[in-house]
Write a structure and sequence with these properties.
CATH architecture: Orthogonal Bundle
CATH topology: MetI-like fold
Helix content: over 70%
CATH superfamily: MetI-like
Radius of gyration: 21 Å
Length: 224
């Protein structure tokens, strides 16, 4: 490899990684947390078939699972100002990614809750628990174990999807790489470098997923 390119990659590494530590990782964590709250709410209102809320939940999931994430970003960041709603890049990204991941995780959680045997609910009622106690102490813990692999995969995908935030001028890793490439005219090397950083992040998350699955498996065996 050309010495000039090696020097460029070394010099640019921290310039790309720093936005990852300051923006990409916080964006991933914040949006996934908000998305999980939204997902759990939507899953519950669908399962309990709450009037008005259940159809609205299904409509929301249909919209955000059926349209491209990039277009969703553009609508919220570039489109809403036409309605007088002005958002900075980071809040716009948080709203978009939260709504998007929430729609996907809602279906994961709904399926996981339905996978818990009905007898668990009946057993809870037989010992005097109410619905919310049964869900909080019996059903949801089991549902989260069932959903864990799928939720982890969605988290890894979300981390990679944050690169799309560069399209709305959010200064995350990909935008940092784009700016350096525009100045140095070395797009191939720099885009490979940012891809490598994303690969490292995804690998770490995948390792944590494997560790978490093993821990949950051990815990489940002990309970049985």
């Amino acid at each position: 490899m050309d010495g000039k390119i090696v020097s460029l990659l070394i010099d640019s590494f921290w310039k790309i990684l720093l936005p990852g530590l300051k923006i990409t990782i916080p964006l991933t964590v914040i949006t996934f947390a908000i998305g999980m709250i939204l997902a759990l709410f939507c899953a519950m209102v669908q399962i309990t078939n709450v009037k008005v809320l259940s159809p609205l939940s299904k409509f929301y999931i249909w919209i955000f699972r059926g349209t491209p994430l990039l277009i969703q970003l553009f609508i919220i960041f570039y489109g809403l100002p036409k309605l007088g709603i002005l958002l900075d890049a980071f809040p716009a990204a948080v709203i978009t990614f939260s709504l998007n991941i929430g729609a996907y995780n809602a279906e994961v959680m709904r399926a996981a809750i339905l996978a818990v045997p009905v007898g668990q609910m009946e057993a809870g009622y037989s010992v005097g628990m109410n619905y919310f106690q049964i869900m909080g102490r019996i059903v949801l813990p089991q549902a989260f174990r069932i959903a864990f692999p799928s939720l982890s995969n969605n988290l890894i995908s979300l981390n990679k999807d944050t690169s799309l935030a560069a399209s709305i001028t959010l200064g995350e890793m990909f935008l940092a790489a784009q700016r350096i490439a525009a100045r140095t005219f070395e797009p191939l090397a720099l885009y490979c470098e940012v891809a490598f950083i994303y690969l490292i992040m995804s690998t770490i998350l995948a390792k944590l997923q494997t560790w978490g699955e093993k821990k949950l498996s051990v815990h489940e065996r002990r309970e049985n």
